[in-house]
Design brief:
27 strands, six-stranded mixed sheet, alpha/beta, P-loop_NTPase, DNA_helicase_UvrD/REP, Rossmann fold, binds adenosine-5'-triphosphate, globular, about 40% helix, nucleotide-binding, 5 domains
Length: about 800
Amino acid sequence: MAAQAHQQTALDQDRDSVRDRETGIEQEHLDQVYRRLEEKIHEAEFLMNDAAKRGQVGTPGALAERDAQVFRAGIHLNRLNNEFEDFLFGRIDLLPGKDGKKGPDGAYTAVEPAEGAVREDADGKRTADIAETLHIGRIGVLDADYSPLVIDWRAPAAAPFYRSTPVDPGRVVRRRVIRSKGRKVLGVEDDLMRPELTAYLDGERLPVIGDGALMAALGQARSHTMRDIVASIQAEQDLVIRAPAASVTYVEGGPGTGKTAVALHRAAYLLYQDRRRYAGGILIVSPTPLLVAYTEGVLPSLGEEGQVAIRAVGSLVDGAEATVYDSPAVARVKGSSRMLKVLRKAARGALELGTPAKEANKEAKTGQLAFGEEPEDDKQAPAEQPTRLRVVAFGRRLELEAADLNRIRQNALSGTAPVNLLRPRARKLLLDALWSQSGAGTRHSDPELAAELRSSFDDDITSEDDFIRFLDAWWPELTPRGVLSAMGDERRLGRWARRILNPGEVRKVARSLRRDALSVHDVALLDELNAVLGTPVRPRRKREYDPLDQLTGLDELMPTREETQFERAERLAQERTEYAHVIVDEAQDLTPMQWRMVGRRGRHATWTVVGDPAQSSWSDPDEAAEARDEALGSRPRRRFTLTVNYRNPAEIAELAAKVLALAMPGSESPSAVRSTGVRPRFEVVRDGLGPSVREAAEHLLAQVDGTVGVVVAMNRRDEAARWLAGLGDRVVALGSLEAKGLEYDATVVVSPAEIADESPAGLRVLYVALTRATQQLTVVSGARDEPDADGVPDLLRD
Ligand SMILES: Nc1ncnc2c1ncn2[C@@H]1O[C@H](COP(=O)(O)OP(=O)(O)OP(=O)(O)O)[C@@H](O)[C@H]1O
């Protein structure tokens, strides 16, 4: 026994010393990389100083050159400084390649091992020599002789790091994940891709350390922000990340399969692969501000941010930020494509209100969205409508009555042009009617004289204050906010929505529009109205006069100095309304009206659309699919399915699968990649819901190191926040719709029946709630859940 223990200790010591030696080898490599980076930083600093000196020469050419050099050196320095932290993370050891050719990044491009790379002796033992070792990191670093010290994770030569599997290893024998912090290597984890092989590196046997990096990453405690997965991207995910950008890349997969992570890494990959093309910007559309906040650190950690905008679907329209959710019944109407016709009628009908409808003061707030209260009473002011136009021209009083005006308006409105752009046409039709009433058209037979007379008639009238006032009231310039507020009047909305919405729907929608705050669904309506109304063309503001321009004459000498490249890039990003690539996360949740809004931002874009129909909170998936197909146009689609759940342990995934079977019978759940042995807990409310939920949260806080999410039906969100007061910032209360895309170490799901009953898509929303935990889950049930003796609610029983 003692001898056995002694043997075991010796084995452990051996293992530790191999681990230390391997860590030391990687440390040496990292030291070499840092030395090279420092050299590069000095070069960049020298370049900046040199550029500054050249600036002192003062000729326009030198100044422009300095500007370009400083710009390039600044970017270089900035990247180096930012990515100095923790950027070397991987290594692959490869067999000799088939053709042995070097690619542009200095590495062999061959995918398959060369013939004879693997030797087999008489006993069937297989051996091989490692021909090449590559290190993978967040950016590429070349040695002074241009051999690669680190390869950028997005370069083609880095693909085997992600693609190689024991089933299809290619040239990779060993894949190593290196954990480092700053300049220090903390440890290494290896996966062996060809376990049947004895491989040698420089004559020594290749050692293997640890149980693989994926499991280590998945077991870590979660914080309130998502981490990048660059060191452990799996083969099926890598195929999506590196899929060619042309057309539409369509990715489906169950909860936790890495769709969001893949979408973010794909944005970074596309920028690396074709930076010039994506200078047009990449837009990532996310369902909630919470998910935006959760994911927005991932791209900077990958060294990319400037060109990518991550926006919540309620913040896509500039100057209009959603702060509330509509009730499911109202959301269902506002999201439906039936609203399209209503908005078109409203845009034209709003003209009859005379003066622009007063805009509600809809203040923008950020953070969590509230469930919107809808006011009871109708406070809309009665409409003002000019019913007659009186002017004096050529000494005669001319007058158009209500019937004439109405006829002219209908005439002007025939056609589909945006309402605000039809104002010049309406003005011309008014003048035509007044001209014909004046009888002046018969005075001259000479067409030139007649035209002159007409022109002075028009000038006479259009310079009259009465006419200008009339036109402003009769054909006001409409704003999307103004028309949306006008729709808050129930009678008016009833007229505009006749035969489209039923009276109950009209009442609910009108009431919701009278509240001060904008809802997530209102934002898509505003965007549609913007398109229907059109923006009148205004003369461009001239650049402000700068007296210094005259003194130095710089303005003529250096027209390119007006705006630096950086300023230009900033300005374009601000003015951008369309993008080169659009990524839609949680695409299953976009309503038809939201698809139209997102579609307008990517009319000429390529797309990546990721989603899971089983998690859809929209009640009519067919209607949304139609709107999605319209937004994506006829571009060809490339489809991918992700099949492995990296978030939930098998014990939680199994429970969630029961709800999936009810929500979408016949659909398959992704297979969980790990199991923790901890089963979900079931609690039944005894002394009130609040205390039971608080107790469950406290219990979980003691069990896990990271975060705890408490998911309740939407209308209990504020109440739940009060139940948890004082428990610290590791615990968060979430309305069911807000849980989308997020994850916690542990979750409490409160009353499955309440969540399932809150909307027609309730079972799918419950499925989302049950799949948020990485370690532990507690379900708290009330009487409505009909729990059995073990506390298992009816919806979660076999
Ligand atoms: N290859 C990987 N290596 C390490 N962690 C991974 C990997 N793939 C996914 N994960 C982790 O699994 C979790 C789920 O990923 P993600 O949120 O992207 O999934 P999802 O498919 O978008 O889920 P949902 O549909 O539920 O929103 C995250 O913590 C993510 O970091």
